[in-house]
Amino acid sequence: MSQIAFETWVQQELQRVEAALSRWVPADAPAGLGLAMRYGVLDGGKRLRPLLVRAACEAVAGDLAAALRAAVAVELIHAYSLVHDDMPCMDNDVLRRGKPTVHVQYGEAAAMLAGDAMQALAFEVLTPDDGDAETMPPALQARLCSLLARAAGHAGMAGGQAIDLASIGKPLAEDALRDMHRRKTGALLQASVLMGAATGGCNPTAHAALSDYGAALGLAFQVVDDILDVTQSSATLGKSAGKDLDANKPTYVTVLGLDEARHQAQALHQQALQALSRGGLADAEHLRLLADMVVDRHS
């Protein structure tokens, strides 16, 4: 597949996801809550997680309508986590996706509620009413909700953030750092792949390959994030550069050094591609190119 064809696919998928987010995130929620929610999730971000959902769905010839709901749900969970992480009680950041963070724009209380509402909305999107034109089998709804909840909760993203906050100013061994990032960042990226796979027929070999791909890619994403935090400007990143170093947080760069962190990113990239190659998937090209995009990105 040519790079132009891939970029065309990405733009088409981004348009679908953005339109669905705009449709399902209500502007009329009470007391300005909807405005804060939409500010926090619309018109920004790489949308990598939705792209992984859609690409994995294609790889298993799955239900694209169900995958669109899954893509929106996982982006809502990601966006809510950013809203909460940016607040003064956590990372205390003022810039996200090139604009003021939600708590800066709307106040801390509104930001907290917007994050709470986005988290709840994610599961509402995955469980459409019987009268909805895009219904899903109850078993698929349950599977998607289970994958997303586990990735977002104590065993995944929330647990990783707890370790992150508890590790400020403390030395952290590489295996502990890897565990933290597999939870905080990797779990939701891996779940994105598995949610896409859940929308179609997926034999055990393909499922294991996609799971391994998602795990390697999720960790690679965080390693690259740590590298970019010390090599790129805030204007390029769309968020505050150097904030982890300033906060004395352990990262792959501080624990391993910049050169070794780059080596780790490339090794994880190869692990992800090798996992895809043994999956026997009919069409995994978009997943392969998304792995390239994660490691080669500059923001």
Query: Ranges with pLDDT <50 over ≥5 residues?
Result: none
Output the structural class.
mainly alpha
What is the residue-averaged pLDDT? 93
CATH superfamily annotation: Farnesyl Diphosphate Synthase
Measured distance between first and last alpha carbons: 24 Å
Q: Largest beta sheet, briefly?
A: 2 strands, antiparallel
Cofactor: Mg(2+)
Pfam families: polyprenyl_synt
Family: Belongs to the FPP/GGPP synthase family.
Protein name: (2E,6E)-farnesyl diphosphate synthase
Based on the model shown, name its key terms.
Farnesyl Diphosphate Synthase, 299 residues, metal ion binding, mainly alpha, two-stranded antiparallel ribbon, 15 helices
Structure, explained:
The chain is mainly α. It has a single domain (3-296), classed as Farnesyl Diphosphate Synthase (Orthogonal Bundle), CATH 1.10.600.10. 71% of the residues lie in helices and 1% in strands. The chain is built from 15 helices and 2 strands. The chain has helices at 3-24, 33-41, 48-59, 64-85, 102-106, 108-125, 138-152, 157-166, 174-198, 204-231, 234-237, 243-246, 252-256, 258-277, 285-296, and strands spanning 95-96, 99-100. α1 (3-24) crosses α4, α3 packs antiparallel against α4 and α8 packs antiparallel against α9 (174-198). The model has no long low-confidence stretch (mean pLDDT 93).
